[in-house]
Amino acid sequence: MAHFPNTFGFTGTLRPLRLQGDIHDVEIEGEVPADLDGAFHRVHPDNQFAPKFEDDQFFNGDGMVSMFRVNDGKVDFRQRYAQTDKWKLENKAGKSLFGMYRNHLTDDPSVEGQIRGTANTNVLVHAGKLYAMKEDSPCLLMDPNTLETHGYTDFGGRIDSKTFCAHPKIDPATGNMCAFSYMSKGPMTHDMSYMEISPTGELLFEIPFQNKYLCMMHDFGVTEDYAVFSVMPLLTSMERLEKRLPYFGFDTTQPVWLAVLPRQAGATAADMRWFKAPSNCFVGHVMNAFNEGTRIYFDHPVAANNSFPFFPDIHGAPFDPIAGLGYLSRWSVDMASNNDEFESIEKLTNLADEFPRIDDRYATQAYRHGWMLVMDREKPYEGPGGPFVGMINSLAHIDLATGSTKSWWPGPQCGIQEPCFVPKSADAPEGEGYVIALVDNHVTNYSELCFFDAQHVDEGPIARAKLPVRIRQGLHGNWSTGAQLAGI
Question: Whole-number mean pLDDT of the chain?
Fold first, then answer.
């Protein structure tokens, strides 16, 4: 008999959904653009069974993959669990066997040494497969149309890393998937690797290196010539696992770094440059990165202090929600410099933001348009609360050429999940197209996939695909074209 904890991570807006199914021809309000042909895949953590420990993290849920198939003005919905090794073992046992978030010391002895990954962080179609990813484990492959699970891949036995990142980038010039790993040789190792995977899914090369300290490495940037890693002291250790503390804790006394590695098969760790940020800070997801010669520009939200209350300060300082607000900022460094100092830091907006996205056809390149979720503390909220929800309450577009922003607020009962840009056509100008995002009503308990004119998000949705349920708070997702779904 299932009994989920009466805790913040399993009640209210974060109550588990655990629903697999299909809805053909979802109810539409407005008109879905007839020229859209593709699918929006996204994923959220959703425990198959009640957790072994009541104080477990929301992030430890099994990966539940949603697909919104859009074609001819219609939307079909499909949702399935990513059937990881963990999911299969627990499904057979009929209960949870794996313990706390990323803490193998708390697992049932029967699953010792098994892959603990949940594939719950990001999904992306590449080389005819749906890559389902969580950064502490290998990459899981699924069918992008049926959502059937194929299993973990080792890229034909060529990859040395035991883990695979949750935020790979597709280079629009080469079609390569650019990815990385951390704790590459196992839990609590400083080992990392940068790798590129061909458009047909073959591992081209893998460059190993060592990190400065043992920390979360969630996202990164890729330019035409470089892979760029922001390194902040959201730290972990075996001692934390032994004490059953939250897996990560933020250390305000440690430096923050920007590490730059040339993107070429012959590069080694000796070619990496480490640039030291002027002060400690908390860095978020990457909007984009690009280089002009040896000068590198790296755009991402930056907060003055820890943004994650569930991974608290290691020195016991209370969480500061104001200092934890991130603002889109541009860091620049020069590989031709003779020191480890930043060239400049520029704050790009006064909107507190996260989950930044671009027109992915301009990944690795200079760009103009971006979209992000905004935390507007002046807006009221009437829902039951939960991490991020209620606080992440608006969708914004930023024009980096003019600095102007436009935003839309769905109302006091709602939260918004990560947006995704979809070009109007393959050769449309940058930023000409649509933005899609799930809007959740936390009072009526319904979710709607909303479609916006990308450069006029302030005018509100042009269409809404109305689900009869509320989809649990997700993490990340991506759009794939009809041709990609067909394996073309």
Answer: 96
